[in-house]
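Give me structure tokens for this 254-residue protein.
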Amino acid sequence: MTANFQFGEYNVLGQGAKPAAYLTLVFSEWDNGWNLTEQECQELVSTFWSGTGPDYVVEATAGSNDCQIEAYYMGEARHAFYSLDEAGHMQVRPPMAYLNLIASSFDNVYFERLDFYVTGMNNAHCNASPSKEDLNTLLNITHMSICMWDVDDGATIPATDEPLMEGDVEDYFTGKLAGTVGPFTELSPPVNPFTITPAPTTDPATGPSATASGDRSETSGSSSTGLLIGIGATTAVLLLVGTGALVVALRRRK
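Here you go.
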């Protein structure tokens, strides 16, 4: 799996050119000789990137050798990824904790690389020891900075939501890209399947009659409070969205 995160102006599906935070996830080169279908690619979106919002668009495309998920965040929804104070100090973060959860939920997905681009910031620096950086490149009237983490080059993919780049905001960001002063906010959508709490179930053997008779034995179904990632995360997660998505999990495990 690779991830690409950018701030800039993009052609958003059905909306034309918009200032947006743009996140791409690519699943590719499956080791068993075949690739995801379009339907299975869409199931990944339904599982890990579901939800709707006025400032949020997501689409999935299955190519000849990969599945690509593209998410666009516009307006104030972008504050999930950046903070800006009154003094003009800007910090930017991709949703790394969530991306690492996605990668670790599969048996055979390797989170290989993160590319991180920010436009509209000067005097930028990267945090978390990237394997490559290209900072403060002048692009006509603004600057762009790039931080890259490539495991094959010895980097460790960041695993937390700490800011990965920070610097001084430029007029291009607050003007052309309509950035605003404000703190980081929660990423929403997507709906995080790892935080969904299943409804409690009651086994007949542990119902009221059993309790009255003094039988206080416990079953795993009677106290379900969360996602059982440790016993097969892919299957557990995909069960949340129905049997159609489970096809992906089963094929991954052949």
